[in-house]
Amino acid sequence: MRELAAAFEDEHPDLRVRLDVGASSTLREQVLAGAPAEVVALADEADMDRLAEADAVGPVHRIATNELVLAVPTGNPGDVRGAADMARPELLVGLCAPEAPCGRLARAHLAEVGVTPSVDTEATDVGALLARLAAAELDVGIVYRSDLRRAAVVGIDLPGSPAVPHPIAVLRDARDPDLAEAFVALVRSPRGQAVLAEHGFGPP
User: Fold this and answer.
1) In whole angstroms, how far apart are CA 50 and each of 124, 128, 133, 168?
2) Could you say which architecture CATH assigns to the domain 68-157?
3) Which of the residues 5, 131, 153, 178 could staple to 17 if both were Cys, CB 3.0 to 4.6 A apart?
4) Number of Cβ within a 10 Å radius of residue 203
5) Does domain 2-65+165-198 have CATH number 2.40.170.10?
6) pLDDT digits (tens, 9 = 90+) for 140-191
7) Could you give the CA distance from residue 150 to residue 201 in angstroms, rounded to a whole number?
8) CB neighbourhood size of 34 (10 A)
9) What pTM, to 2 d.p., does this model score?
């Protein structure tokens, strides 16, 4: 989004794009509380559905997909091989908090494959979890595939992990709906999709 914001500013020299980044659940609550915003892009359709139900957003568009992966520190000191290792009590295991999409989706996947994780840390969002994994303060966690590029961690596939759609929408009370729609159009354009692909996202 930072790259796309910079590209949008190049197209509109008098405009500056401000990005507020956080867990989808946090952003959802901020929007519902009336925080000033024009566009909202989330990592979870369930949170966007709640905004749509509240009539807080206009038409919703999928802009990318993602998938869950195991993440371990460089060198994999815990010798993690798969989802079953999340249940090993001797490992330091981290997940996002249940209210964050990465936490809710990770728990749902682990339940589906019959693994009860031995959770030592619940991070507020993926960024916080990645930081602890990169610092080798945890042995294993579950993040999105695109997050592997953000920190010095190693990814391990989670077979059967579902594709996670990422939606975007213009807010109903956007101060400049035309500009907001133009930004959404950029994200959905071939140029925008190429940027997302470069950062590890799958197609919508």
Assistant:
1) 20, 25, 31, 13
2) 3-Layer(aba) Sandwich (3.40)
3) 5
4) 11
5) no
6) 999 999 999 889 999 999 999 989 999 999 999 999 999 999 999 999 999 9
7) 13
8) 9
9) 0.83
